[in-house]
Write a structure and sequence with these properties.
single chain, 353 residues, mainly alpha, 2 domains, 11 helices, 0% strand
């Protein structure tokens, strides 16, 4: 081994030791994003997202503290269509329940920014972050801040004409959250010490990236299902409205609207993408087993396969039970964890030399 190689190994070891707190921080951020997604799912399923009708980034962290403040918030809520059309029966106590979930969701989102920027500044001060890592992390911080804007942009869509938020904006908000989550996992995994084991060909990396893209698309499709309450109908499987391919998929004009606004079509698309992902993962596992098994980095594939099967079962159970909160939130969370596993698989393959 040459002197240069010895020096390189020493630098890798030193960097790995110094980056351990960074990895822990990034994995913690990813877990916190997942927590926000869980609370966001509950917020959506309890129709709580429009209970706070203003955006106050600083003062909004403090909930109403007395009867007058609670009444003011309730009076503001009474001005929007959701109250007058759907919830005019609500008492102040009922309002406090939905207010809590939206307030908690926003509080967690603000907290995420804090637990990102403070350690980031400390790591910069300690010179723990190399230049090639500092900029991607700063971009992730900007993406996290953009999530806050998307959240308010989503909420604002339901304050004047709609009785719920726009499914388009909900999909943008959830998809951006999934991108932030998988990026955190990828960066954390990519700075693991040492090299990953196994033989990786370009084909392996490309097929894993395709899988990751399919999962992000599916998460976005799931947001459209949630935004239209499309899971509340057609609660049978494998048939949908009595057929494998139901009628009425293109009942709206122009045709493109059906993909985003027709509850029947939106649910059918979500089911179809699930079948495609399941078949694709099965093919990848079959091909990998034929080509050399699951040693080293490819040990991720059978784990991903198990997660896909669990997700399919959970999705079917959620549908058949007419979308109870517990199953629906579990289904959404598992989708993020599945995407995170694929992101880790991709990162590990990039570490194989």
């Amino acid at each position: 081994m040459t002197t240069d190689q010895n020096a390189a190994l020493g630098q890798i070891s030193y960097a790995s030791d110094r980056l351990r707190p960074v990895r822990i921080w990034l994995y913690s951020l990813a877990a916190f994003v997942l927590l926000i997604v869980v609370v966001g799912g509950i917020t959506r399923l309890t129709e709580s997202g429009l209970s706070i009708t203003s955006w106050k980034p600083i003062s909004g962290t403090i909930p109403p503290l007395n009867d007058a403040q609670w009444q003011a918030e309730f009076d503001a809520y009474k001005q929007i269509p959701q109250y007058s059309v759907l919830n005019s029966w609500m008492s102040l106590d009922d309002f406090k329940y939905i207010f809590f979930w939206e307030w908690l969701h926003r509080l967690l989102a603000r907290t995420l920014g804090l637990i990102f920027i403070v350690p980031f500044a400390v790591f910069l001060f300690q010179k723990r972050l190399p230049r090639h890592l500092a900029m991607p992390l700063f971009i992730l911080f900007v993406l996290g801040g953009f999530q806050g804007f998307l959240g308010w942009w989503m909420v604002s869509s339901g304050l004047s004409e709609l009785t719920s938020v726009s499914q388009y904006r909900l999909a943008a908000h959830l998809t951006a959250a999934s991108l932030l989550f998988v990026a955190l996992i990828y960066v954390a995994r990519s700075i693991e010490p040492g090299r990953a084991l196994g033989r990786v060909r370009p084909w392996h990396l490309v097929t894993a990236i395709v899988l990751g893209i399919l999962l992000i698309i599916q998460i976005g499709a799931g947001a459209f299902v949630a935004g239209l309450d499309a899971g509340m109908g057609y609660n049978t499987w494998p048939l949908m409205d009595g057929a494998l391919v139901p009628g009425g998929l293109f009942a709206m004009d122009p045709a493109w609207r059906n993909f985003f606004e027709n509850a029947l079509t939106v649910q059918f698309i979500h089911r179809t993408i699930a079948y495609v992902i399941t078949g694709y993962v099965a093919f990848l596992i079959w091909r990998r087993n034929k080509d050399g098994g699951f040693g080293g980095v490819h040990g991720w594939l059978p784990r991903i396969g198990v997660l896909v099967l669990l997700q399919v079962c959970l999705g079917i159970a959620t549908l058949l039970a007419s979308v109870p909160i517990s199953l629906a939130v579990g289904h959404q969370s598992l989708a993020f964890m599945l995407a995170g596993a694929v992101s880790a698989y991709i990162a590990d393959m990039r570490r194989v030399k």
